[in-house]
From TrEMBL:
Keywords: Flavoprotein, FMN, Prenyltransferase, Transferase. FMN binds at G16, A17, S18, S42, S103, M104, G105, T106, R138. The gene is ubiX. PANTHER family: FLAVIN PRENYLTRANSFERASE, FLAVIN PRENYLTRANSFERASE PAD1, MITOCHONDRIAL. It catalyses: dimethylallyl phosphate + FMNH2 = prenylated FMNH2 + phosphate. It is an enzyme of class 2 (transferase). Its EC number is 2.5.1.129. This is Flavin prenyltransferase UbiX. GO terms for molecular function: carboxy-lyase activity; flavin prenyltransferase activity.
Amino acid sequence: MSELRKKQRWVVGITGASGSIYGIRLIETLLNADIDVHIVISNAGWRVLHEELGWSSTDREGILKEKFGSYPGACIYHPVADIGASIASGSFQVEGMIIAPCSMGTLSSVANGASSNLMTRAADVMLKEGRPLVLVPRETPLHAIHLENMLKLSRLGVKMIPAMPAFYFLPQTMDDLINFVVGKILDSIRINHHLFKRWEG
């Protein structure tokens, strides 16, 4: 059995859509499960991390090491401009990729095969290699172009998980709402978790 199959590797992308905490919570959960995570963050994504979570973007690798360095899984950061990174090639095997949150600009690029940076190139690799690709759109309201791009990708097997938290489990905190969305992402890629209470009828 290869080393890859002994330990999972996933790619997580964070774009400039609001809701960067979804991507951060996802990374934390994967790393805590001893899964290696390859991270790519767009320049707009770094801006949102600063605006929403107070993260500094001056030492990007340093802050990721500070936030994620103590988990069992390994955190591997790839600058979005590094089109020659490992995850840009189909020969580098990973389980799949999640972009959370996914901006409409990134979604459009993926839907139309425009691989202009590492984020969209890595997503294109998932499509061409037939690996799982999960997008977490965070926009409202949606117009026809947004919906048509989502439909195009859905027909290719891409999973769309809009950031729509549920309320049937009576959430008490913001964390409860965040964990629900992240839990639904993990359900879609068949990774066990205990982030929210499941409906039992």
